[in-house]
Design a protein that fits this description.
The complex is a heterodimer of chains A (541) and B (56).
Chain A lengths: L2 H5 L2 H5 L1 E2 L1 H20 L9 H23 L4 E2 L4 H22 L7 H25 L2 H11 L2 H24 L4 H19 L6 E3 L4 E3 L4 E3 L7 H17 L6 H31 L3 H30 L22 H21 L9 H13 L13 H17 L8 H7 L3 H36 L13 H13 L5 H18 L2 H22 L6
Antiparallel strand pairs in A: 1-2, 3-4, 4-5
Chain B lengths: L1 H23 L8 H23 L1
The chains are: A mainly alpha (541), B mainly alpha (56).
Chain lengths: 541, 56
């Protein structure tokens, strides 16, 4: 592929588009339209089950038919105006009939029945006309035969899912909660056995599912029995197995997937034992406030990453021999994804640990700073190709982001846990903690987050060989998607985070260098740090 | 025949995937969104690094 093509992939898009690409576009457009329509006044006719099963069917159809669809001739450039008009009319019909039904038409009347039929018809027409907008009718007509056996596989996936959902819902939600009760009781007994190894007088109350070490009492709730972890691991393992099906020995991979579920169960018991140990040692707020949730996530990410690494490296699991890269070492600088992402991942991993050891105030925060510095130092030679220069535009954008952040944050309410935590430290400890926090906010955080979100993610959205994509060639889709993901990282401030991410991406695009985004990010964080320290407004930390 | 078995196992995996997601659904509101997002970003990033390593 030429450098020009790598840097400007939308040139290919303008000439047309493959059928699978167009189908994905249809799915995204449908989801967006559904989002808008569901936020407008509409009749309360529940189509959730139909839509969800439809999504499973379509996803399975696309999955099993992907190769065949890719072999089809690319759809020509542009869209059908007639289909677009029909689609707009269908949307208008959904809205109009929905509003009419909402007005409270006389139930059972012929008119109401006709309008209801029209509403259902219009709802069905929306996806069909959207398909016709994106894909020429001649190509659409070939789809049923081209997809061949994929129809049968999609049906085979969907039917058990419909049945399975009904079964799970009965098992989980019925008053008896058969599975949930069983897991809860097994968790209680396993935790009791684990605790008895360290504490001689453990008291168990089987009626209330509670345990006591004498100094710490806790209840094993239904959702504490490892359900989330096992379910998340089942989703991750089965998704990875489906994704890598051509490279894996499926039977063995499924067996390892089941073993990973057993591992999640075991680690949940370890988590509960550790939680009781922390509580018994005199830190009940840490046990319940931070460790309780964070330890579960740490276990899940560790097992999930272990599963994926095993699937990638363990020859016993693989149909194909390990790729040549396997011998190079995952953390070598030749793995350019690691160079851009690992500093950020180290900070996130450190944050899980620091939050697990806290009860509101993150006293171990400096660990995040040291984690970032350690990885950046290890890869220091690999960043020689990054353009770190910056100018006034980055600094001005950072100041604008700071103003936006303050404007969108609303008013302060009450004293934060951080303010209380800092008040409990000695003067020296407080100064050291604040120095580490400011250094992280203004130096390491801007560097690691810009490397991850603009340096890697935004450019990776444009092309697989992300390092060959110049910042000025970031597509609008890349700017938008990377900013949304960046925003999601900021919790309740997600909108401000997404807008800030877009601003950082745009200055990097305008000046064609990552350094401009780093400067903007550092400026915004520095001004926020000054605001926090000057006003004692710790919400922004 | 081999392809049929492989695709059949894929069907099993898809059914497990959706089933476990449906099963976990009542538990999802219990998950802390802030920590969940961080952990999922960590996992997603780690998967990207592993894929990058295999391509390197």
């Amino acid at each position: 592929m030429s450098t020009e093509a790598v840097n400007r992939p939308w040139l290919a898009g303008r000439a047309g588009g493959s059928v699978p690409q167009r189908l994905l576009w249809v799915a995204a457009a449908l989801a967006a339209e559904e989002l808008v329509l569901s936020n407008l006044p509409h009749p309360r006719i529940s189509l959730h089950r139909l839509v969800e099963n439809g999504i499973v069917f379509c996803a399975a159809l696309l999955f099993f038919g992907w190769r065949r669809l890719r072999s089809m001739e690319d759809a020509p450039r542009g869209v059908s105006r007639a289909a677009l008009a029909a689609h707009t009319a269908a949307l208008a019909m959904v809205l109009a009939t929905g509003l009419w039904l909402l007005r409270g038409a006389e139930a059972g009347s012929t008119t109401a029945l006709i309008v209801l039929c029209l509403w259902f018809g219009a709802v069905a027409l929306v996806p069909l006309t959207l398909l016709a907008v994106a894909i020429p009718l001649r190509t659409l007509a070939q789809l049923p035969t081209r997809l061949g056996s994929a129809w049968a596989y999609a049906a085979l996936c969907t039917l058990p899912v419909i049945f399975e959902r009904a079964v799970w819902s009965v098992l989980w939600s019925s008053p008896g909660q058969a599975i949930a009760r069983g897991m809860q009781a097994a968790t209680l007994e396993s935790a009791r056995a684990g605790l008895s190894l360290f504490y001689p007088g453990v008291v168990v109350n089987r009626a209330e599912f509670s345990l006591s070490t004498g100094r710490f009492v806790g209840t094993i709730a239904g959702f504490c029995s490892g359900v989330e972890g096992i379910a998340l691991m089942a989703v991750t393992a089965s998704a990875w197995i489906v994704w890598q099906r051509r490279e894996l020995r499926l039977g063995r991979a499924i067996a390892i997937g089941v073993a990973s579920l057993a591992m999640m169960w075991t680690l949940n018991i370890v988590r509960i034992v550790a939680l009781f140990a922390i509580g018994t040692a005199g830190y009940p707020r840490v046990a319940v406030g931070g460790f309780h949730s964070e330890a579960g996530w740490i276990a899940f990410t560790a097992v999930a990453i272990g599963f994926v690494v095993a699937c990638s490296r363990w020859r016993w699991l693989r149909r194909t021999s390990s790729e040549h890269g396997a011998s190079a070492g995952i953390l070598r600088a030749s793995n350019r994804t690691a160079v851009y992402l690992l500093p950020f991942l180290a900070v996130v991993a450190a944050s899980l640990v620091t939050q697990a050891a806290s009860s509101g105030f993150e006293w171990l925060y400096p660990l995040r700073l040291f984690a970032a510095l350690a990885v950046l130092w290890a890869y220091r030679h690999a960043y020689r190709g990054v353009d770190w220069r910056f100018g006034w535009m980055g600094i001005a954008a950072g100041a604008a982001v700071f103003a936006l952040w303050i404007a969108l944050s609303g008013r302060a309410s009450g004293v934060t846990a951080m303010a209380l935590g800092l008040a409990g430290l000695t003067a020296g400890e407080r100064a050291a903690w604040i120095a580490a926090r400011v250094a992280a906010a203004t130096i390491t955080v801007p560097i690691v987050e810009e490397l991850a979100f603009r340096g890697f993610l935004a450019r990776r959205i444009v092309a697989m060989e992300f390092e060959r994509v110049e910042m000025r060639n970031l597509s609008w889709t890349a700017v938008l998607l990377s900013s949304v993901v960046f925003g999601l990282m900021h919790g309740r401030m997600w909108l401000a985070g997404a807008l800030a991410g877009a601003a950082f991406a745009l200055v990097a695009k305008a000046r064609n260098r990552l350094g401009e985004a780093v400067a903007a990010h550092a400026t915004a964080n520095l001004l926020l740090a000054i605001w926090v320290l000057a006003r004692g407004d710790y919400r922004f930390w | 025949m081999r392809l049929l078995v492989r695709n059949g196992l894929c069907v099993v995996a898809v059914v497990l995937l959706v089933g476990s997601a449906a099963w976990a659904r009542p538990a999802l509101p219990e998950i802390d969104p802030g920590t969940g997002t961080a952990a999922l970003m960590l996992l997603g990033g780690a998967l990207a690094v592993i894929r990058g390593w295999r391509r390197s």
